[in-house]
Write a structure and sequence with these properties.
Layout: H1 4-21, E1 26-27, E2 33-37, E3 40-43, H2 45-52, E4 62-63, E5 68-70, H3 85-88, H4 94-106, H5 111-122
Parallel strand pairs: 1-3
Antiparallel strand pairs: 2-3, 2-5, 4-5
Helix pairs in contact: 1-2, 1-5
């Protein structure tokens, strides 16, 4: 039987999967959220998770000169320093985050395919 914490975790994961499948979010790469003009944004799969969080303003943000949001320690920006501390509160391990980044950014998997992976690999049973 699932604990209350696991049930709450699954509720959040299911909301994330629903958002990824909603077509409300335009998929982008290399950052969680990027302004692309006219008030529109692109998101990576982890950016969608942060965007649907009702406490998103609690997640640290860093804006570069191109209006790109990185959820990292702004004093430690670089490939090896990727540590989205704000995303750890969602219960994702570093390995899971890196797999999602790989699928989204390196392999160009669609949000639909990523949502399927999330359901198969992250829902607690």
């Amino acid at each position: 039987m699932l604990s209350a914490a696991d049930k709450e975790f699954n509720k959040g994961i299911r909301a994330w999967v629903k958002a990824l499948r909603s077509r409300k979010f335009k998929q982008g790469t290399k950052t969680l959220k990027r302004h692309v003009g006219n008030g529109k944004f692109e998101y990576c799969c982890l950016g969608v998770l942060a965007a649907i969080d009702p406490d998103a303003e609690a997640v640290p943000e860093y804006w570069d000169r191109k209006n790109t949001i990185f959820f990292v320690d702004k004093d430690k920006i670089g490939e090896d320093d990727f540590n989205p501390s704000g995303l750890y509160r969602y219960g994702l391990t570093d390995e899971q985050q890196r797999e999602l980044i790989r699928m989204n950014d390196d392999e160009g998997k669609s949000f639909r395919v990523i949502a399927n992976w999330i359901e198969q690999n992250l829902i607690r049973k």
